[in-house]
Every structure is written in structure tokens, then in C-alpha cells.
Amino acid sequence: MSTDDKIQAAIANPQNMGEMADADAVGTVGNPECGDMVRMWLKFSEKDGKKIIDRASFQSFGCQTAIAVASMATEMLKGKTVAEARELQSSDLSKPLGPLPPMKLHCGDMVEGALRDALREDRESPVAAATSTSGNTLLGDMNQPAMKSGKLKVVKI
Ligand code: FES
């Protein structure tokens, strides 16, 4: 199956799509060039004394490739330790889809960026900070004045 076919199959049945009400962490990135955003929620638990990702979910607008990668990534993250998750790069997260075409590489980078943002250690209240502006939806955030004026947060990888 080609990468395109795998992307189509993934977006026909995306996994773990939607806000996670009981998340422990959330990360968001936006790309002003294509106008897309990806948000990822993580729920942690503990196993053998290590913090692991119990569940992950995402929201994404616009781009099918980002949705497909996020769907794969949120499945892949289940059971990974935080340290293992930090090691993952966009090429790892998109691997099940096959090599992405050059113009779509940034779509995978967006998913990696949302994951890294969610795993940042330097935030006080990650969920509240990321969701306080707009009733907690990515669409709400995209309609915020800061987003419309191009002051979108971009995480460089
Ligand atoms: Fe921008 Fe896919 S085209 S995230």
C-alpha cells in the first residue's frame, strides 16, 4: 500500500481523536504557513515505578497527513515511558505510513511538536494554560484574536 493509501485509510478511521477531559498534559503547535494546528493530550500512569503514557488523544484541523500521523502517534505512545516518548521524532511517529513526501514532512513535525510541548517540564499547569482561552477546543483557539492575527505559537524542531 502506498503512503497516500495508508494516509487515506488512517483518516477514514482516525484513532484517539478528540479532547481528553481528564488529561494530565496538553501541547499545541501551529504553523502559520499552512494554517494548521495540532493539539495533543496525554494521560499518565505509573508502571514499575516509571511514569508512562497511559493514553493520548489529539485534535487537528485542515491537513489529512497531520491527522493520519497523529492517529498513528497516539496509538504508538500508549505504554511508552516519558523518556521514551521524548526520544520519538516525527519520522518515528509517521513510520507506519511510510515515507512522507518532502512537502508533507512538516505535517509530521507538527505532531512531534505537539508531543514535545505536552512533555515540557517547565509549565505550571499545562492543561489549564493551554485550554483557558477558548472553551477547550482547537477550533475555539483558532478563532482567538491572537491566532487570527498570526501570533500563533510555532514550535521549531
Ligand atoms: Fe501543514 Fe499538513 S499541510 S500540517
Written description of the protein model:
This protein is an alpha+beta fold. 40% of the residues lie in helices and 20% in strands. The chain has a single domain (3-148), classed as Sufe protein. Chain: A. It has helices at 3-12, 64-77, 82-87, 90-93, 105-118, 126-131, 138-142, 145-148; strands at residues 25-31, 36-47, 50-61. A three-stranded antiparallel beta sheet has the order 1-2-3. Strand 2 (36-47) and strand 3 form a beta hairpin. Helix 1 (3-12) crosses helix 2 and helix 2 (64-77) packs across helix 5 (105-118). The longest helix is centred in the middle third of the chain and has 14 residues, at 64-77. The protein is globular and about 40 Å long.
Describe what is shown at a glance.
Helix content is 40%, strand content 20%.
Detail the poorly predicted runs.
none
- Give the oligomer, counting copies of the same chain as homo and different chains as hetero: single chain
Average predicted local confidence, pLDDT: 85
**What is the N-to-C succession of helices and strands?**
HEEEHHHHHHH
Strand content: 15-25%
Strand order of the largest sheet: 1-2-3
Largest sheet: 3 strands, antiparallel
Which small compounds were modeled alongside the protein?
A: FE2/S2 (inorganic) cluster
Integer count of domains: 1
**Overall SS class:** alpha+beta
Report, as a whole number of angstroms, the end-to-end distance. 29 Å
Per CATH, the architecture is Alpha-Beta Complex
**Helicity level:** 40-55%
Q: What's the count of strands?
A: 3
CATH C-level label: Alpha Beta
General form: globular
Number of helices: 8
CATH topology: Sufe protein. Chain: A
Q: Cα-atom Rg, whole angstroms?
A: 15 Å
